[in-house]
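Re: the 116-residue chain
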Amino acid sequence: QVQFVESGGGLVQPGGSLRLSCAASRSIFSINPMGWYRQAPGKQREFVALITPSGNTNYAGSVKGRFTISRDNAKNTVNLQMNSLTPEDTAVYYCNTGGTATRRSWGQGTQVTVSS
């Protein structure tokens, strides 16, 4: 059963912006913190941002001030607005539960490539 479907990735120049979206099953979305994660080539998957059901947020230091996470409770989606992108942001981006919530099976992710 597909639990997360990520979209919105693509190729963007340094300094550009992208908006990622993740559709999650209602049973997961409605009660869990939701997070965005990323995995760059040759590196481990890392935390990017988290949002609780009440809307509190937390960010990795490397993206703070550039990325904004949000959630649409009516649509069971979590979004990631990414601004001022750098080549170091190049990775496959995934969503999943966040914080201490049990991680579910990972989706396919969405590729973000920042290059001139």
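Residues 7 and 25 are 15 Å apart (CA to CA).
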